[in-house]
Amino acid sequence: MPATASSFVGRRREMALLENLWRRPQAAFFVLYGRRRVGKTRLLWEWMQTHPEDVLYWAAEPSSESDQRRAFSQAVYRFFHPGGGEVAVWYPTWRAAFEAFGELAAQRGRRVALVIDEFTYLLEHGPRVAGALQHAWDHTLSRGNLMLVISGSHLGMVVRDVLSPQGPLYGRATAALRLPPLPYPATREAFPHYDAEARVALYAVVGGVPAYWVYWDPEVSFQQNLKAFVAHAALSLSDEPRFLLQDYIRETGNYYAILSAIARGAHTPAEIRRASDLPGGHVSRYLESLLETGYVERRRSLSAPPNSRQGRYHLTDPFLRFYFRFISPYRSQIAAGVHEPLMSELRRHLLDFIGAYTWEEIARLWTLHAGSRGVLPFQPLEVGAAWTRHAQVDVVGWNPRERTLILGECKWSPRPVGPQVLERLVARTEEVLPREKKWRVHFVLFARRGWTRETETLAARLRREPPSGDRWQGTGVTLVSLPTLDDQLWQWQRTPPPAGGDIPF
Predict the structure, then answer these.
(1) 164 with 87, same domain?
(2) Mean pLDDT of 37-47
């Protein structure tokens, strides 16, 4: 059966982590957290299908503390007494309820798991529940043959009450995982009838959040899906940014202005201040808060010193980036059923939007993996971009220990790339080179539709006669087309890199 947008795809490493914790001979405590809609519950449900009789799954709800405790008590009783009829069980405290689960699990004679989903609904009632779970874990649960999983979407609350040193559960977790969105290669499994160009465009619009993929029919073309998404799904998701931000921030109004400014191309504090029309002090404070959410990140040029203050702010989430760049300015028209102004904006700017953000990010992902696979001559320790006042390089992979540098240029043009792009990339080397010692430099060109014959001729000449400068020596050129990149990322996702030889000790 072919995969669909609602199929469970990817998550092989996460499933393996859950299974490894399950197979431990000791008790295990796993904390799973992440942004809303990223697929935490689906991941847990898929893993639970492999142990259907040994896992108690219970999801908290936005209800009173007493109602929650009563519902949990009933769930524990029914799990350990299947077919026992209705019995009014209601443990007097959360600690008693958790310890009762541990005691009943010990009587069962085989390993059992307790999964508490939406745990942050319990934390909303205060730290008592986390403290009760800490006491139960320390005195009962950690000594049993069981696995405890708690999952939550309110990231600020999970970090504060579970993972931070000030939280009562700090240090108890065997493992903790912030579940990331699915990476780009997973689109190939969910949308098998889409070519690579359509899947990159899809990823630029909704990113790797599985809940957003449900709005896209894998049997329908990207263009048709995009029109339907703009007309219907984008309107139904109009409150999504507020829901995401409210996990951290109460009043979202001024934060919307910051996010809109970044989405429209303002990346420095000064640019953001001018675009948002907010006072400078407020912008700095808001940016600090947004950095904590993970939806905004501050990137530094890899050619700058590590302590450089000349950073640029970017939205990390593709859906938020698309929403604030295209949807938000046209919400009133969309609500009224008038879609042409937005569609006109997309026709003018979607191509550049994909090339400036998603295509570069996918190229950086490829660069990070290509070194370990032997496709590139160097293994970068960090991959990003580099810029100065006079030049910018889209993809930079560097290894300061080995003094190796990968410089790459990305083009999302619907036409083959000419030799001048490669010439300009080589010419920028001196400008973005780190300021110390001598480096070996490899050049990479990423092109959606490949390159012209003249570009191939130039690349071949640069391989035979590598360019060089006072502090750098070229090692060659790699040309990467979208189909090649897409195939390789797909294969690399499914097979681990070679482990190499044994490690001496």
Answers:
(1) yes
(2) 95
Which residue's entry shows tokens 């808060």? 289
Structural domain ending residue among the three candidates 340, 358, 376: 358
pLDDT range class, residue 279, cuts 50, 70, 90:
confident
Residue 323: CB atoms within 10 A of its CB come to: 23
**Strand pairing report for 472-481 and 439-447:** parallel
- Do residue 17 and residue 80 come from a single domain? yes
| Type of residue at 266 | A
399 and 348, same domain (yes or no): no
Pairing relationship of beta strands 28-33 and 146-152 according to DSSP bridges: parallel
Q: In this predicted structure, what is the pLDDT of residue 139? A: 94
Residue 411 DSSP class: E
What is the residue range of 136's domain?
12-178
DSSP code string of 265-329: T--SHHHHHHHHT--HHHHHHHHHHHHHHTSEEEE--TTS-TT----EEEE--HHHHHIIIIIGG
DSSP state of 245: H
Residue 40, in any domain of the structure: yes
Shared domain for 466 and 486, answered yes or no, is yes
How many angstroms separate the CA atoms of 321 and 206, rounded? 9
Distance CA 447, CA 414 (A): 9
DSSP states of 431-486 as a string? Answer: HHS-SSS-EEEEEEEEETT-B-HHHHHHHHHHHHS--EETTEEEEEEEEEEHHHHH
Query: Euclidean distance between the first and final Cα of the chain, in Å?
Result: 48
The rounded distance, in Å, linking the Cα atoms of 418 and 89 is: 74
**Mean pLDDT over residues 192-219, rounded?**
95
72, 40, 48: which is closest to 152 by C-alpha? 40
What is the pLDDT confidence band of residue 250, given thresholds at 50, 70 and 90? confident
**Cα–Cα distance for residue pair 188/491, rounded to 1 Å:** 11
Rg (CA), the chain: 26
CA distance 468 to 462: 10
Contact 408, 393 (CB under 8 A): yes
Amino acid identity of residue 292, one-letter, is E
Burial of residue 61 (number of CB atoms within 10 Å: 0-12, 13-18, 19+): exposed
Q: How is 25-45 classified by DSSP, letter by letter? A: SS-EEEEEE-STTSSHHHHHH
